[in-house]
Structures are given as C-alpha cells and as structure tokens.
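Re: [help] complex structure
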Amino acid sequence: MREETRREAVWQFLAYAFILLGAVLTLVPLYWIFVASTLDEQEFLSTTEPRLIPGDSFLQNFESLQARGNVQFVGHPGEMTQYVDFGFGYVYYDVWHLWDLGALESSIFVAVVYTLLSLVLCSMAGFAFAKYEFRFKKPMFYAILATLILPIQLLVIPLFLLMSQIGLTNSYWAIILPWAANPLGIFLMRQNMRSIPDALLESARMDGATEFQLYYKIALPTMKSSLAALAIILFLFQWNLFLFPLVILEQGKYTIPVAINQLVGAQRVYYDQIMVAATLSIIPIVVLFLVLQKQFVSGILAGSVKE
Amino acid sequence: AGTGDPNDDSTQQNGGGGGGGNGTSGSSTTEGPAMADAVEVWGWDVAAKSLDLINDPYVEEHGGEVTITQIGRADLKDKFKSTLLSGSGAPSAAMMESVDAASWVDTGGLRDISDWLSESGIKDEFVSGKWGPLEKDGNTYALPWDVGPVGTFYRRDVMSEHDIDPSSVETWDQYIEEGKKLPDDQYLLNLPSNDYDGLWRMMFRQLGGQPFTENGAVNINSEKSLQVARILKRIRDSGVANDLASWSSGWFTAFGEGTTASLTAGAWMEGTLKAELGDTSGKWGVFKPPAIESGGPRATNWGGSNLTIPTQVSDETARRAWDYMAYTLGQKEHQLTMYEEYGIFPALKSTYESDAFDQPNEFLDGQEAGRMFADIAPEIPPYRYTIDTPAVTKAVNTHFRDMMNGGKSPKEAVDAAAQQVADRTDRDLA
Amino acid sequence: MSTITLDTLRKEFDSGDERIVAVDDIDLEIRDGEFLVLVGPSGCGKTTTLRCVAGLEDVTSGTIRFGDDDVTDLRARERDVAMVFQNYALYPHMNVRKNIGFGLKLSTQQSSADIDRQVEEVAEMLGIEDLLGQKPKELSGGQQQRVALGRAIIRDPEAFLMDEPLSNLDAKLRSQMRTELQTLQHDLDVTTVYVTHDQTEAMAMGDRIAVMNDGTLQQVGTAEAVYRSPVNEFVADFIGSPSINLFDATVDGNRLDGPGDFGYRLADTTPVEGYESVRVGVRPEDIELVADGIDIETKVLEPMGNENYLYADLGGHELTARVASTARPSPGDVVSFTFDEDALYLFDPETGEALKTKTEGERPGEDGHVEEVVG
Amino acid sequence: MSTITLDTLRKEFDSGDERIVAVDDIDLEIRDGEFLVLVGPSGCGKTTTLRCVAGLEDVTSGTIRFGDDDVTDLRARERDVAMVFQNYALYPHMNVRKNIGFGLKLSTQQSSADIDRQVEEVAEMLGIEDLLGQKPKELSGGQQQRVALGRAIIRDPEAFLMDEPLSNLDAKLRSQMRTELQTLQHDLDVTTVYVTHDQTEAMAMGDRIAVMNDGTLQQVGTAEAVYRSPVNEFVADFIGSPSINLFDATVDGNRLDGPGDFGYRLADTTPVEGYESVRVGVRPEDIELVADGIDIETKVLEPMGNENYLYADLGGHELTARVASTARPSPGDVVSFTFDEDALYLFDPETGEALKTKTEGERPGEDGHVEEVVG
Amino acid sequence: MATQDTASQATPTARDRLRFVRQSVSHRLPNAGEGLVGYLFLLPALLVFTVFLGFPILYTLYLSFFRFEGVSNETVFWFDLGFFSYELTRIADLTFVGLNNYTALLSDSLFHQALFNTTFILLVQVPLMVALALVFAVALNASFVRFKGVFRTVLALPVSANLVAYSTVFLLMMQDAGLVNYVLTSVGLPAIPWLTSSFWSRMTIVGAVTWRWTGYNMIILLAGLQTVPQQLYEAAEIDGASRFEKFRYVTIPQLRPVLLFVVVTSTIGTFKLFSEPVIINGGGAPLDSTITIVQYIYQTAFIDFRLGYASALTYVLIAVVSLLSAVQLNVGGEGDA
Ligand SMILES: Nc1ncnc2c1ncn2[C@@H]1O[C@H](COP(=O)(O)OP(=O)(O)OP(=O)(O)O)[C@@H](O)[C@H]1O
Ligand SMILES: Nc1ncnc2c1ncn2[C@@H]1O[C@H](COP(=O)(O)OP(=O)(O)OP(=O)(O)O)[C@@H](O)[C@H]1O
Ligand SMILES: [Mg+2]
Ligand SMILES: [Mg+2]
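Output below.
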C-alpha cells in the first residue's frame, strides 16, 4: 500500500513534469514575442545572443504602432456627429460612432459574431449528422468534410467575385458568412454528439419535445464542453484568417492578421510594432480561454441512463 | 433582356481618340471627355508616401480627389491580383514591379494606355530599358516610375581598416581578391542561398543577357549566363561571402556591425540602409558594380516599379488615373520631389540633369552618389521579363544551390536550369 | 384513452450479419382504459414491444392502432403517450424538478406556478420531494427510477407505457407505489401497458396479463386465468413462484408413473387419452405433506417467515413445496406428499400444450376473460 | 477471503450548498466468507456503503479494514474486490465476451484460451451464451444485468460486492440465479455484501441481513431474527411483505384498545408496564379469519394464485391479511379476525423500540446470532 | 398529473407567456418524418454553404478543365428594367483542354516533390502532435492537477499567436546561431542546420506546426474527455485496471470519435500547410525540400496565373486527402461507432 502511494506520487510527479515542460516549451516563443515587443527594434535585431530580459520600450513601440498612418491597431473614440440639441446642451446619440474600430476591435467583433453564428449552424448540422438517419447522409457528410481540404488560396478569386456580385466587398459579412457553416465545426459536433444516449432524446420525444427542442433543450446543454471547444476553434479560425480578409477588406476595416502584415514592408519589417501587435492580440484569446475552459465539466452525461 | 454589350460605344480603345481629349497630356483637364472625380491608387511603403507628396499639387492644378492607399508589398500584390482575376474591386491605378509586369499584363486585366501615351508624347523621356516588360503586342500597359541602377555599397571604415580600396576595383575577380584581406569573421559581401537568382539576374543583365530569345526560346544557358554562374561560384568558393537570408534581421545586423562589408543593390538601398542602420551614417560609400570581365559594362538594374490601370475601372476613372499618373510620373519636378524626399530614383531621363543628383550624400560620407546612378541609369540594358520569369527564378535558385554545394558544375547548373524552365513553360531551348 | 391494437407486429434488429427477431408477429388488443401487464423472461421482447407502441422503434412489419387511427408511422410525440424507461433516461443537466416538469412545460399551456405545484404533488407521492433540487447523478438508483416514473405520471396522455418502473424499489415502497399507480390509472382511466418481471406485481396490478416468450405472445388473460389455466407448459412454468414442479410421466391406463416413487391414479383419463407419456405439473402450494403418499427426501428447508419452502429430491428431480412454517423436516429426512387431482396440470410432451389445468371449468377459451394465443 | 470491518464509516456528499449524509457512522463487521445482505428503503445509503467498501468513494470519516489491513486509503484496484454495479456500467465498446473477460485479462496471467473458456462457462451459467458477440446496447435490460453479474463472478476476489444484481430479472431466472450465486459464493467462500430490495432474496440468501435506514444501520441479524425479533418499529415494518399492520393502542391494564373495533386482552402485561399507549403490530399472515373476533370491512381482495391478500378497514386504518385462496369475501363484506398473542408485536410509541416481538425466546441480545444496532 | 383544474390556473407570468409563444412557434415547425428532420437541421448550414462556397467550389472544378487565357469583361448577358439592371460579364477567357491539366500532373516533378514533402511532414508531424495533445489532455483532465485552467490556456495559446510574429521568432530560434542551437551546443550536442539541410528544415516545419497546434488539439480532446462516463473508469478500476490500462481500454475507445476528428483534421491541416514554410523557409528552401502542395498551388495560381492547372491540382489534392481521410475514418471504426 505504501508502494502504491509511492507509485501514485510518481505518476503525479510525471504528469506535473510533463505539463510544466510543455508549458515552458510553449511559452518560450510566446515569451520571446513579448520580449521583442518591449525592446527597441535595434536592440532586438542587433543582439546576437538570444535576449530574454524584457526591455522598457513597450509603450514606445505601441505608440509608434498607433502612429502609423495606414493601419489603426487599437481604435479610438469616434466623433459623434449625431446629437439632439436641448437648448441647454447637446446629447450625442450615435452609438455607432462611439468608438472607431481598430484592427483589434474589428477582429474581436468579427470573431464574436462569426463564432455565435457558426456555433448555431455547426451544432445543428452536427446534430443532424450524429442523430438522424436520412438519405445521402454519408455522401453529404463526406462532401462537407472534403471541402475542409479546399485551400483558401484558390477559393479567393471566385469568392471575391461572388462577394462583389452580391455587394459584400469591404464588408465584415464577407469574411463571416462564407465559413459560417464551418465544415470543421460540423465534423466536431457530429463526432461529439454521438455520445448523447439515444434514450435521452427518446425520452424527450415522449415528453412531447419537438425535434428542434431536442436540439436546444437536450443536445446543446449536454454538449457544453464540446460547444466551448468549438467556440474556441471557431474564434481562432476567424482570428487567424488572413488571405481573404486581406483581399476583401479595405483599409480601416483590417483585422489583426492583415493589419500586422502591413508592417512587413518591401524592404523593412517593423519588428517592434509587429511584436507589440502580436502581444496585444493574444490578450483577448487568453480571456476567451479562461472563460470558456470553465465549461469543461466532466461527466456531464452521468446519471442519464443505466447501461 | 438581351445579350450584348450595353457599353459598346464607349470601350477603352475609343476612349482616348474618340473624345479628342488631350487632357491626358498631363497639363490640362479643362477639356476632353469627362473624368471621374476621385481616384484611388495603391502603393507600398515609401513609394506610397512619395505619391502622397504629389497629391496636393495635383488636386490644386487638376481638381479631383486622390486617395493613396498604402498596402504592404506582398499584400498589395495578392490583393491586386485577386481583383484583376475576379474582374472587380480593383483600384484606379496601382503600383507594379517590373519583374511582375509581364505576367500581370498577360492576365489581360491591365488597360492599354498606348494611345494616351503616344498622345502625351512622354514615352521617350523614360529610360528605354524600362519599357520591355510593360508592352505586349505593341500595346503599353503601364507607365514607368523608378529604376534601380545598381551600385555596390560598402562600409568605408571596414574597407579602409583592411586596406581595401573599392574605387579601384573594376572586376569581380579583383574584388574577390581584395576581399581576401578581410579576417575570417568578416565577409566582403553576402551571397544568400535563398536568393541566387537576384544576383544572377543583376549580373546577367549587366552583360546584356536575356532569359529568353526574341522568339521565346530559353536562353539562360547562354555563355553570358555561364559567365555569371562561374563568378558566383568563385565568390562562394573564395570564402569572402557570407550566407544570410536577405532582409532577415541577421542580414541587417551584419551590415550594422560590419561583418558583411558591402552590398550590391539598387540605388534605393541607400534609403533602406539609412532607415535601418541610421547610426552607421557617414560610414558608407558606393561604387559602380564590378564588371564581369575586365572592361565590361558596369550598368545594371535591380528593382523598379511602374503605375498601371486595370481594365475593369470605368473609362472616366481610367482617364483620371492616367491624368494623375502622367502628372506625377511624367513631370520632372514631381519625380524630383520624390527623389529628394524618399530616394525614389526616377526613370524619367530629363530629371537626371537636375542638380539634385549632385548633392553630397551625408549617409555616404558626402559622396555625390546621385550623379553616379544618374550616369548608370540610361545605360541599363533592357531585360525581357516575361510571364515565365518566376519559373526562371525558381530554376536558377534550385540549380545554383546545387552548384554551390558542389553538386553541379556551373555549366551543368545553367543547363539544368534552362532545361527545367523549358520543361515547365513549354518552350524550346535556345 | 383508447384501445391499442397490435396487428402482426414484428421487429427485427440487425446485429452484425445476423438478424435478431425481437418481436415475432404479435397480435394484441389492449382495451380502452385497461391495465395490461406484459411479462416474460429476460430478453423476450417486452421492452421492444413497448418501444414499438411508443413509436421509438420503426416496426419491421405489422401495424399499431390507437383506437381507429393507424399510428404505425407516427412519431413518438404525436402519439401522446407517456413512458417510463427501463434505463430511466433522465435529463442529466436538469434537476429533478425540471426533469419531472419538462413534459408539461413543453406540451401544455399551464403556467409555471401550476406546473411547479403539480411537480411537487407528484414528487410527494413518490417520496422524492426533498430531492427536487438535485441532479440525476446525485440520486440513488431507486430515486432515479422514481424520477423517471414521476416524469411519466405527471402527464395526461393517451396511454401509459411503463417498463419495470418499480424494479429498483424496496418492497414497501413498491407496494405503496403499486397502489398509487393503480389509483392513478383508475382515476385517469388511461390505457396502460406495464412491463414487470415481478409475479406479484403482475398478478396484483394487471387487468390482464400478457405472457411473452422469445418474441412471441403466449397467452393473454386475467391473473387467475394464466395462473390456473395456462395454455402451455411455458406459461405454467413461468407464472407462479416458486415455479410449478414439472416432470415426465408415462401413461399406463389411468396410471401416471414418474421419477422416483411418483405414481398417481387418475380419476378422469380423458386428457391423457392417446398419450404414452405426458408432462406432469404440480404447483408447490398444492403439495400436501401427508403421512402416507409419495416419498421424497428433504434437501433444503428455506424458512420464509410465515411459511417454509421445502426442496426435496424426487428420483433425481428437485421438487419444491410450500409448507406451513410449522413443518420443519431436516435435510435427509424422508417425507411423504400427495395432491388433489384438481390441482394437477398435464401437458403434451411434444408441443407443451395444456391437456389439463387446474380448474377445468375455467379452461381457456371457455371463459370470456381468457384469450389464448399459442406461439 | 477476509473479514470486512466498517468502523464509524461516514460519507457525506456536497450537493449545491447542502451536505447530504449518505452513510452515517456505520459500524459493521462482515465475517470471513459470510454472505451479508444489505437492505433498506431506496436512498438509505446502501449503494454508497458498497462503493465505500469497494474504494470508489473517499470516505468522509471512519475506517474500512479487510482482515487486519486498513484499506481506507487504498484504491479500488488494490482491494481486489469484484462488484456488480446497480447501473451495470458495462463497457459500451466491448462485446459481451470482452466485457466479462476484461477483469481476468487485466488481473491474471491466464492465457486467452483459458479466459475464453471461463467466460463461456459463466455465460452459460447466466444464460447469455448466445449473446457473447453482442454489444451492450443491443441487449435487453436483464441481459445487461447478467453481463454485469458475469463480469464480477468470473473473478476470484477478496470480496464480492453486488448491488441489486437481479433486479431486472424475471422471477424464474432470479430464483435460479440466486441458487447459482449462493452455490458459487459457498464454493469460493468469498465474503459477500449483497444489496437487494427484495425481501425474499434477502431472507433466502443472506447469512445475515443488515437493515439500513436513512444512512444508519438499524439491525444486523439472521433472516429469522430480523423478521421475528426486529429491534424497532422500522425494521418490523420494513421486513416482511405484505408489511406488518401497525397502529396505536391505549393500554388499560391488560387491555389494548385500538382503532375501530380493535380490542385485545394480553395474557402477559410485562412489556406494556408503565406505558399509556403503545404501537401494536400484527403481521398479515398471523391474521386468522374467524367467526367471532375483531370486525373489519373488506375493501379489496387480491388473488395471488395460491393465497389471497385481503385489504380491509379497521376504524379508518387499512389492515392487510394473507388469507387462504378459498376465503373470498367481497368488498363491503364484514369479516372477523383474531391472532395469537405470541404473534403480537409491541413498540414504544416514542422511540419505536421493540417492547415485545414474536418469539420472546429469541429476543435480540439473548441470541448469539443476533446483533443489534439502533440508529 | 391528473389534477389539472384549469380554473385554478394562475395568470401566466411574462415568462410563461413567452414560453407559450415559443411553444406555439416550435410546435408549428415542420414536423415531417424523421428523414426530413435531418435535412431541416442541415438546412441552414447547407444553405450558407452552397450560397457562399458552392459557386467557388464548382467554378474551381470547372476551371480545372480549362486553360486560363486572361481576364475578360465581355458582357455575356444583361437586362435593364429601368429600375433594376443586371449585367453578367464573362470572368475569364478560357480554352477547354479536357483532362490535360490532370494528365500534366503525372509528369510534374515539382508537384511530386511537394507531395513528397507534405507526406514526409505528415508522417512525422501528425502522430507526434496527436500523441502529445492526447497526453496533455489526459494529464490536464486528471483530478489531482491544480491550476488546470491556467495550464490549459497556456498550452492552447500558440494557435492565437500572429503568424508573422511567431514565424519570425522561430526563424531566429532556428538559425545556425539561434537559441535552439545555442542550447544544444551548451549541453554538448552538435548544432543542427535547422534551416539549411533538407531533412532538418522539414523538421523545423514539423516543430513549428506542432508547437502551434498541439494545444488546440488538446482543447478538442479535452472536450471529448468530458463525455466519457465516469462509471466506466470505476468499473475498470474494480476490474483491476492500472492507470495505463484505463487509458488504453476506456479512454481511447470512448474518445475514438474525437480522436478520429483530430487525426483527420490534422492530416488535412498538414496538407494545407502554407504560411510556415513560406515565412520560415522562404518558400521551399532549401532545394524545394519544404515546398508544400498548397504553396505550389498558390504559386501556380497567383504567380504563374495558371488557374486551370492550379484548380486541377486542388482537386487532386482533395481526392488524395479525401481518400486518406476515408481510410482513417474506416480504420478508426467509423462504421460501427
Ligand atoms: N453523488 C451524489 N451526490 C449527492 N448525493 C448523493 C450522491 N450519490 C448519492 N447521493 C444521495 O445519497 C443518498 C444515498 O444514496 P444511495 O445511492 O447510497 O442509496 P441506495 O440505498 O443505494 O438507494 P437505492 O435502493 O434507491 O439504490 C441518497 O439520498 C442520494 O440522493
Ligand atoms: N438495439 C438492438 N440491437 C440488437 N438486438 C437488440 C437490440 N435491442 C434489443 N435487442 C435484442 O432483442 C431481444 C429483446 O430485447 P428486449 O429489450 O425487448 O427484452 P426485454 O423483454 O425487455 O428483456 P428484459 O426483461 O431483460 O428487459 C433481446 O434478445 C435483445 O438482445
Ligand atoms: Mg426490457
Ligand atoms: Mg442503490
């Protein structure tokens, strides 16, 4: 029995060691990005030995990033032009101009809208694939899966054409809608929803639930963890989209990857500003993760059926 | 509903002549066919900034409204090509590198400006070497902007410390010999293994070489190409060359610290060096690139852009865009403004007479480098960029790397490269 | 509130490359407001039949009618039935209150307060009023089962389908729930199909009992009918606990000769006419220990409190007898027994068909309450 | 094969903000090789106790010893116990063969062929030999339960822990399995803790029976002891089916006066001395219908085949009686009953403690086989 | 229950009224046979899918049978209703070449090289990454590990790092005198030519991709782990399973659908590798040893403007990867899962 306690301790130690090692290896490049963001560009470039102590130029780099003419990274208060004159003073009311979006806010906005929309579409489709029988189910599933492979590099041209035909160029919808039915998300939901016991759905049917109610009253709540994972996937997918936003969006609407790429000049790469932008752009994701990972509650289906 | 072209009567071909407008000459817009009010021009980096300088004078004189959109170079290309290929969303005019010109022209997405060009009569004012890739079947698709006359920049302090006098160097072989005076941890120049084609093209052009013959056969295994390959091989073998990826941070660092002592590049490089390595100001000098063989030509080019108008924009917009282009690129004083402010080296020959080129350059320790480049510019041999330029780039890089590793002799390398290009592009060998 | 009619209902499953016939052409009419109990050995197809009625399984062939409506192709929620699942199938993310109220919430226009009140009533009836805030995984097996039950009985459906709804409850609670269910069913007058493996429950609750075996329906009738007048050996054997004692006997005129000492002279030989041998059945409670009768050797005596079970050896056959708690032979003791001819069962040795059952007057087919289906 | 000792075992669960005491300071010694049956109402903590013994729950306080080893902090796999889960817990991705053989595969060095052979033996014993290739979700409830049982009995563990292992089986199969299990347990001589809610099973199988209520242990003793000599009203009420009839009666000298017509003269008044009122208990089987006795009005007569249950009204109290199947009063009929004083139970009206039980000679504490724990 | 005396019904609260409205809506939703319900759930996704991706996908397929000859803006169809006018212009001048684009692939050595590179990276990278992700997920699901949230977040962060920034840092780290070699040499190991040898440059890509995507896959697996019933672990524990055996016999089979997801999507991801090799290896250096298929497609389409050929390449890619995924799904027991 002491033997076992010892073995348990070894297991735990190994697990911790593994996690810590992983965390450190993961953090090194990220940390370096952060360090680079705090260094003067010359310092960053001229060090031959890797430099691991942060400098103090973060704010300065941030300011030079913000001072760029062609990209706005973080937005700023907008000029509200709509107001009511009460005689004794004005009240501004144009909420859309409360804040002029920078790339950071654009990205957040687009990713949030996209994530919400796509969560709905993907979970519905995944539910259909996991829990219903219908004709052409398999071929349809495989067809959707196959589109996962389509390289965006080739789709850009016809997609651009399509968007301009329907008047969506330079619109956030143009980068939200095409992948709203994300094959990846459909696939994930389908895989996870297979673990919902059929008996659960049956008992809800007996209770008079419509098929749609099965979906949002039974399937969604019991798939909380998977939805959280999917939300992360979708958010990141949109967060990292580059080529199509670059092509379809015009200056002023750029998302983060596009904006950062503008710092890669023909002859000059603004490393300091890139690193500042990259560092800042990680913050929303940290927040997102910390919020969503709480949804990973284990044994969510426990107690439902005897088997 | 019906089929047919609703705009039949106003296609671009008729645009210039039909309206009888001479507003496109760049001097007046008061008459002639209607021009759109607003134009948007895409450019990258300093080029875009330099266009900005001309906006105010243009608007003052010609009216209209000009927006310059600054987009990163690679991004601009992706974005612009997408708009070209999908037939919508393109700007009124955009910057186009000469290297890309042939293939872009070939897409059919660019507007023929030859009528306007001939009408304006400014064609001959540009260095003749620029036109090749901008033309196809007798039509012209872009207006030249800048050229990149090549010079070899060097660290004066490093060279003199080791007793090297670049101004006396005439040929590459000489230069290599001089370079051997440098200690082991210092290199005369950088020969990046990811970018052999750049150096090869520069030297090949210097010799007047053409990648394809006039009837389209692959010519990169010509004697001239072989000469260049041998030189490059000699540089590598002699140990005077560093191998750092171009534009990488290490690459810049090496120049800053003097571990790489010289750099052969377009005239625009001075601006870049100034921006990146400001604290080495005054320690630099420049001389004409060494000749391949004694007495050989020492004029060549690296880089250079043009402005082009997509076909998809309306005629009114195109006319305005042309008007703007002709104004900014075709007029001496504006080109000079750009040169003085951002070091954009004009392709407009008439500018070379200006004493702007005679100013001593502080970064280059007071050297009057402008004049040197201005002398080189008109002598640059033309070079036939085609849609298959990328294939050439690829092939040269691949096989020269093999050659450098000793896997192939120079002869084998150029032959293999030529064969690869021929295979991939369906062309004959010259 | 309607008759449920199963017409040659058949259900097959694909399992790997074989087809399993779970329900084999069943014909059954469950009368309006009737409480029908479905019994049969484990795996005989009770659950599957119930699921077909509920609309949870596509039938392979046959039809199901509610009243005059063919509901065979209707989906579960359109049939308006309530069901207790054998494996509970509780909603894991809802607490007990929500689990029970879910059906009402979905299908009625009642206010939340009303629903809550009803949920509390039901919970009280089931003795789970303290657990309303808990999630299924925090409940004991019996509590889970009661929640599953509550979920069904709160509704006012066309039919109740209950699959062993009390199997995890203790005797006291079970008998209490049984009464409650009966009262409820009676008040609502809802047609009910009730699966149980518990004899007592089947006997006590069912208006009629349907006995299944191996996918086929054996007999449908009142508790008494299936007990006293089984149509075949299987039903006789299955119904009654402890089971009927069954053995082979040769027929010799009016004499039956069985294992060991067994010999019996029949007063009425009509049932065995034409048979050389028959299967003989005697229920344990019909065995009387007498001073002079058929000798058996006591093997085990199981005290049951109010009576004793006696397991004895009859020529290598185990014989079970229910005897008074005062009778206490020790293992090894030889005792002697007899029984009434009235209490004797005789079956065809080949087909298992009943030749004679307990009370001749109530033979199947002659009594209106007894229907017979031989599988 | 060792004694299992629970020493003030306590288990609390956190549920939301309250703490639920599932097992409340239980002391219990299960003897080496003993077959102990744990009974009690639903939710009383049987499963939790079993899971603590198995090592699947961390105990809140108290210790568990196997023989002399304190195993309280040991993990389940080191305790070497086999368990049948109330909710089966079959491996859904393995077929029946693999499910049953899994334990052997992991914990022994036997060859696959050996394991296979044993799996087949066990499957045959359980009557699931045809299902070896099937996956759990293709099985009926009873079949699943048998697989779960098979998974436990194939092993040769220190202890068997079985949580209602037969609850989904029909009576016939159940009694058959019961015998099999007993034989097996006897052969292996493995200490066994067996949870059931079935009276008969508890009585028939247990060497001793432990009765739990609300987390506490009420009484541990032989079947007879808990039946005849319950330590308190709860045990008396819980054990026995139908349940004992219980009502209040005032004591007036040697006379007990209860609801309705109830009046009884005690021969021996010692138990009631000092009491003004007591709880009176009479088991249904001790009630005899006589011509002249205490009058009751028949309400329901439930025919059980071999006997009838009579539910009658005694001054607003429901009285249950087990009567001969020949006795058939109709609802509304007034009948009359009596009982022996020997068969009378008396309890303290406040504490529920037993004052008099069936056989005075076997009162708890006086008999070596009976232990008593009052919760 | 039975006692629904409607008279006593309290006036419904606002929430109830909302519920009734939802109820009446949802009960009016189409309620056709099961076969149709599946389609109805699919409909929104399918609609978005066909509207936005249908045309590009079909157009690409169409293109793969043609040679692109340049842009065209000739009008092929128009109408003008006064208040509404529509003009459809031809997108491109195309020459039909039949299957030529596909047959040309057979002898395209660069394509073969790209396919080889990708396969090579795939074979190393996918197993490595999936194994790592699985171990992390299981470790971070263990009850004894503290600060789970922080660790999960940290491990999953790389995927959010900006591509340019992270590639730059990788480039710096992997240089001959970069951090990695610095560490290697300081512990006495030889420096490795991470960027210049063809083998090691592929390994650099493997490293970069693994670094970036392991945490992401871990998150997915972690979500999958939550659906594994706890009682199976208990049963296994009773059966005497060790930690590893529980992992082997419970976790893995229960996680199979999600594992399949991870394997299939990682495989696809590897086939779609583009940015990393471009930035870290400057587009295929050394000697085309890191050029990937998508990179080649990009080059063909965007640099060489051989749109038809690029489309054919794409469809071959789809065919190859679909085949591979189908194999993975079937080997992974999709059939009976
Ligand atoms: N995980 C849990 N969280 C909170 N409460 C629990 C949990 N598990 C059990 N309980 C509670 O503990 C009490 C005892 O449960 P247990 O499962 O031991 O009952 P049981 O005696 O086995 O009942 P049954 O016969 O119904 O199976 C019950 O009231 C139950 O609600
Ligand atoms: N999904 C399925 N796939 C294959 N076979 C099945 C499936 N469901 C049930 N069966 C088989 O059909 C037969 C009948 O099963 P059913 O569940 O109806 O039995 P049951 O009478 O309810 O038994 P129990 O009393 O044990 O619950 C069984 O032999 C079972 O193995
Ligand atoms: Mg069943
Ligand atoms: Mg329990």
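The first strand of chain B starts at residue 38 and ends at 43.
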